[in-house]
Amino acid sequence: MQTKNLISFAGKRGNQIRSDCFVELGSKPSGGINLNLKSKVASMYGASIEKQIKEMCSFFGLKNANILIEDNGALPFVLAARFELAVRRLFPEIDKEFLLPANKNNLYHTSKERLRRSRLYLPGNEPKFFLNAGLHQPDGIILDLEDSVAHSEKDAAQLLVRNALRSVDFYGSERMVRINQLPRGLDDLKFIVPYNVQVILIPKCESPKQVIGIEAEIDRIKKKNNISNEIYLMPIIESALGIIKAYEIATASKNICALTIGLEDYTADIGTQRTLEGRESFFARSMIVNAAKAAGVQAIDTVFSDVGDMEGLRASVLDAKSLGFEGKGCIHPRQIPVVHEVFAPTADEIDKAKKIVAAFEEAKVKGIGVVSLGSKMVDAPVVKKAIRILELSGRS
Asked: N- or C-end of the chain: fewer Cβ atoms within 10 A?
């Protein structure tokens, strides 16, 4: 390993420097470890940074290397990911993982029926967005490995997302990751499945075979790492073919918790443009809702891309709710309160739900098999919806 005379990089520098750090690693035949640390926080954390890098050198078996680190206040999990990336790029044969202690605040579980009104997308190679995302209280946080990450940064994002799943406090938000399209997405799984990911989003999903293949790899990794926690799946339908096969996809696995749609790719696939009115996607969105409901899973709407248009967002969420969607994607924290507010039940909905549930409970006590409210009969799906409304009202 030490006989190579090569240089690798991780992160960006100069005018392009990230809000974390840049690492340059060069191997040499002799001379030991030469660490050149340039840090804005050197007076407070310089010693701990040097200690971490030396520990990582020992872990990866680096005995002779020139190391330059330009640090802009990176947290330990970011510094670890950047340095490990530089090592992996220099020595591709290395398959060891340097893991910092896990954050115990993230050892909570989720459920298939959990509320998913909002899910906040974060680029997987931009850790500056990770730290406070949970404070905005989205129902879910998506660390994205796919469209928001440049091809040249895919390997960086894998390590950053892995470390974030272990180290970042998500403050109770569901921990989600959007993997890459297959087959590359299969490689992403080894960086997230062992580290308490709760929902995996499957992009550009067009076939139940894709779901089955991903689930098989998840099961293999879980077995290898002795993992017992449930990991749910959320296929993203983004093409005409995917829409036609939506129900087959939604029923491909018992671990599918929701079905969602990506309209930018869908409208491009059918040869049109996405509009605020959404006439061009009405059929597709209705198909997603119908397929999800028929499969007994949640229907989640696409993102609203104009982060400055709150009224447009409100109208879009109202439209989604009227079609039967239960949640919506967010690309900025400011969208979360609007999404939660609109998906919250109205006073009339809550009042009606209370009456339905009360009538149902009364009928059970009396041993009556048929539930009625006034002159109308109430069947099981109506009661289920009423219970869900009351649950929502408790979270709003």
From this structure: C
Give the mean pLDDT of the chain: 91
Domain boundaries, the chain: 7-90, 104-343, 347-395
In angstroms, how far is the first alpha carbon of the chain from the final one?
57
CATH class, domain 104-343, is alpha beta
143 vs 106: CA distance, rounded Å:
15
Q: Tokens at residue 131, please?
A: 């730290």
Q: Indicate the pairing of strand 232-237 with strand 258-261.
A: parallel
The answer, yes or no, to whether residue 35 has pLDDT greater than 50, is yes
Confidence band for 351, pLDDT divided at 50, 70 and 90? confident
Q: Would you say residue 363 has pLDDT above 80?
A: no
